[in-house]
Specification:
The chain is an alpha/beta fold and about 325 residues long. It has 13 helices and seven strands. It folds into two domains: about 200 residues, 3-Layer(aba) Sandwich (Rossmann fold); about 80 residues, DNA polymerase, domain 1. It has a seven-stranded mixed sheet with strand order 3-2-1-4-5-7-6, with helices on both faces. The protein binds S-adenosylmethionine.
Amino acid sequence: MSHIPVLLPEMLTALSPQEGEIYVDATFGGGGYSRAILGAASCRVVGLDRDPAAIVKGKALEKEFSERFQMLQGTFSQLKDLLATIGLSKVHGFVFDLGISSYQIDEADRGFSFRFEGPLDMRMSQEGVSAADVVNTYSEQELADIIFRYGEERKSRAIARKIVAFRKQEPFRTTTQLANLVKSVVKGAKDGQNPATLTFQALRIFVNNELIEIDKGLKIAEECLLPGGRLVVVTFHSLEDRLVKQFLRARQGVRKGWNSSRSRHLPDPIEVSDMMPTFAQGKGTGASVKGITPSLTELRLNPRARSARLRSAIRLSAISQPLEREGREG
Ligand SMILES: C[S@@+](CC[C@H](N)C(=O)[O-])C[C@H]1O[C@@H](n2cnc3c(N)ncnc32)[C@H](O)[C@@H]1O
């Protein structure tokens, strides 16, 4: 199945492409967003993706748009350095369409989906530790923590116990082995979703270090946006969305509800009290405090969009600096 870009008109409204400006599409995927931005104004777009398969698509777009489009390979955390390699330090907009693309999920060999038999892989970059490595070597406690923290799966302990018992007989190799094992533990998942949904989500987030990557990507965008520049983020599940909402709230000077957990795999808590606001709400872009969700028409055409939410903000000109504290001299 090809990738149908989610919330596309809404993304364009929030980004508001203008002639001569430069935008970063940090999650190039199949290039749907990049193509739409290039079509909306005579602007320049830099695409980023960590997946070699997306790079191939990006190289094709480079040929089509020559001067106006460039493709970079790497992760959000490398984005600032990668932009420097092409002489860019400040841009007018960043777009993040988080998660995995339909190309990745529908390709059995990539091992992202419980719906297809394939190697238990899940690596976006196609390198490093795979999901099979994790389930075959991590301790029962570590597996339970991963499945609970990144999947919010209530049966995490029972699943971890079964994984460890299973692998004593034979190592995990395929998506089906894991999906069947989870199915034997989780009966009646909510909203009719596949019982393996949350466990697969957890492993994918862990393998790709997704939450730390999002945190780093947002901070790089904050640093590299010009005053008046636009940040547009589309999320697909509550963990991602919570992170983006908390980041934007903190950076807009709203003090409530930021992440207070500390973990090697979660971003550090945001020290909101030490910051001057760096973002304003995306007024005039249709963005609301709650974010934008797909219309019924879009959901009818693309049911995969059902959990998508778009949040956007505008970079203020003030640079972040410590607030004057009460009682401080001078
Ligand atoms: C939902 S898809 C984007 C689809 C795209 N908007 C389109 O219209 O085709 C997300 C893409 O972001 C990439 N990605 C996710 N996390 C990344 C990260 N930390 N660094 C770089 N690319 C990442 C994935 O490999 C995937 O191709």
